[in-house]
Protein: Transcriptional repressor NrdR
Organism: Gluconacetobacter sacchari DSM 12717
Amino acid sequence: MQLRDLYVLKADGRRVPFERDKLARSVRVALRKRPVDDERIERIVNGLVRKLEASGETDIPSGDIGKLVMDTLREVDIVAYIRFASVHWDFRETKDFAAILESIPGPAEARAAAAGARHDGAPRDDAYGPGDVKRR
């Protein structure tokens, strides 16, 4: 149960009401076509909202919300984390993606999965590379 209204402090200085549905949409978009079911997504969103409410703050900077979402997605699904980060940080070039991939610690299998490769390092069967044409 929410005890008080939450507000988001935007980077441009605006103060807008927190919208749970907007947070849920962002998480769902990041997790689209990932192996995370709707029930788990709902638990993730509920957990995020509880953390925001428990912070004791009424006005929460949008960057803090973004960081909380990214920290959560990083633990749930690294591809969703990269997707969300690319929007949150406004990636504009491939080097932005390369930098985040380089920053991901952990086993080679996790980095390979995030890069679209199979665990053995080979590209996925449905992955495209430069000049590749998908065969039917």
Observations:
- The first strand starts at residue 7 and ends at 9.
- The chain has six helices and three strands.
